[in-house]
Amino acid sequence: MFKIENIIRQRRLRWAGHLSRMPDTRIPHKIAFSELKVGKRPQCKPKKRWADILKEDIQLMGLDVKTWRTVAADRRTWGSKVQDAIHGAHEAQLSAATEKRANRHEEEEKWDWKCPLCNFVRHGRRGRQYVQSHITQCHRDEAQAQQLTSLTCTHCNYTCATKSGLTSHLRHKHPGEPPPGLRPQKLLPAQTAPPTTPVPSLLAPAHPAPSAPTPAPAAPPTPANLSGFTCERCGRVCASRAGLISHSRGKSCRGQSLERGGNARTTNA
Fold first, then answer.
1. Which pLDDT tens digit goes with each residue over 254-264?
2. Locations of Low complexity compositional bias (predicted)?
3. In angstroms, rounded to a whole number, what is the distance separating the alpha carbons of residues 16 and 75?
4. What are the φ and ψ backbone dihedral angles of 152, each rounded to 5 degrees?
5. What pLDDT, on a 0 to 100 scale, did the predictor assign at position 223?
6. Can you tell me the distance from the alpha carbon of 148 to that of 182, in angstroms, rounded to the nearest whole number?
């Protein structure tokens, strides 16, 4: 199916051929192909006339600007010419869009994509889709908080009617600016590659300098260190308040159960 601009261009060219075949005495023919005797057009790129738009359409369709009226004298020939030109332009647009899409996918395969809120990283074009899905599912609250509350562009103060309109405005008018909302961050593969093992150099000294002593690991927790919560009934030491409440509710302790809002006696070691 043709694009809307191609359909309008096709209708305009067919109407131009119809006007060209009209006698010179007809008013539509005079309006379309006549010029003013007095006056001149202003400078600084004035507004286009209908004849200027028609000339641009003829050039875009690959037709000759000087001989198109001769071809348009025959209605069937002109209709087939316009139809072939529209089909050729449509095929060229499809091939250009396919090539552009392939180049974009090939470019996306060279990058790593990272979540802006965590260390979730994936590679390639599919990786970008995975990261975007990860942002939507795992960071739903942050994504909703980052939604646009204003429809005014921060770069040119242009006010849009919808959020999609603002996104389209930023993509076309400010292509270098990041899109609104949370988006996957583009990283070079070298930035996310694991560190490589250094290769020993031939110029390295035979006896390297002694390294700093490694600090001893922290001692594991002992019952003496965990004596913050002690049972009132049996004297058992628990590691946390939740553990003390669970112990008092269990069958191992015959004492009265402690409620969550109650006061548990704590002893400082």
1. 554 444 444 44
2. 189-206
3. 11
4. -105, 130
5. 45
6. 11
Looking at 196-251, which runs of residues are DSSP E strands?
Answer: 229-230, 237-238
User: 54: which DSSP letter?
Assistant: H
Q: What is the pLDDT of residue 215?
A: 55
Burial 232-269 (b: 16+ CB within 10 A, else e): eeeebbbeeeeebbebbeeeebeeeebeeeeebeeeee
Structure tokens at 219: 């001692």
Residues found in the chain: 269
User: pLDDT tens digits, residue range 89-146?
Assistant: 899 989 999 999 888 888 878 778 888 888 888 887 778 788 888 888 888 777 777 6
Q: Exposed, middle or buried by CB within 10 Å (0-12, 13-18, 19+), for 39? A: exposed
Q: Residue 215, class by beta-carbon neighbours within 10 Å (0-12 exposed, 13-18 middle, 19+ buried)?
A: exposed
Average pLDDT, the chain: 76
- Give the integer Cα–Cα distance in Å for 75 and 82: 11
* Pair 248, 236: CB distance under 8 Å: no
Nearest 5°: phi and psi at 68? -70, -30
CA 75 remoteness from chain centre: 48
| Cα separation, 85 vs 6, whole angstroms | 10
Query: Token match 């008018």: residue?
Result: 173
Phi, psi at 113, each rounded to 5°: -120, 130
Average pLDDT over residues 53-81: 89
Tens of pLDDT, residue by residue over 209-239, are 555 555 555 544 444 444 467 887 787 788 7
Who contacts 120 (Cβ-Cβ below 8 Å, separation ≥6)?
114, 131, 134, 138
